[in-house]
């Protein structure tokens, strides 16, 4: 991770990335209480790690290899949570994008909005390396 990514991540955490992290981590804990919710909880934990330190990470969609169960889970996620989380990220993206200085953070909100909408079948990679979170 370069100095710019480190600086961006530090500013991200100061500006509220820790709130995203707590939101997703708490959701992951609540989902993992039941056996049925464990796959959704694991996706929440994956999102919490990206939400805490988003700079220097890229999202890869492996929708073909994910299978039909992943698609079913994505549809359930979209109906119950995905649209709400995506709207939160898009709203904050618009706030960041008002100024030129906020554009890098708006880009990270866009990344989080896409993953929050359809999380199953995605993998998070650090700078094009092997998957960091699967």
Automatic annotation (TrEMBL):
The chain crosses the membrane at residues 6-23, 75-103. Residues 7-57, 72-121 form the Inner membrane component domain. The keyword tRNA-binding does not apply. GO terms for cellular component: plasma membrane. Signal peptide: none annotated. Keywords: Membrane, Transmembrane, Transmembrane helix. InterPro entries: Inner_membrane_protein (IPR052937), YccF (IPR005185). This is Inner membrane component domain-containing protein.
């Amino acid at each position: 991770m370069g100095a710019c990514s480190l600086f961006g991540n530090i500013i991200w955490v100061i500006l509220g990335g820790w709130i995203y992290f707590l939101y997703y981590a708490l959701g992951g804990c609540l989902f993992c209480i039941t056996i049925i919710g464990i796959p959704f909880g694991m996706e929440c934990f994956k999102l919490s790690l990206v939400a805490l330190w988003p700079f220097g990470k890229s999202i890869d969609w492996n929708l073909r290899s994910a299978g039909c169960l992943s698609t079913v889970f994505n549809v359930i996620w979209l109906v119950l949570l995905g649209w709400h989380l995506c709207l939160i990220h898009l709203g904050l993206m618009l706030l960041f994008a008002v100024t030129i200085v906020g554009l890098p953070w708006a880009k990270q909100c866009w990344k989080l909005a896409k993953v929050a909408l359809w999380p199953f079948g995605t993998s998070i990679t650090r700078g094009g390396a092997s998957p960091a979170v699967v």
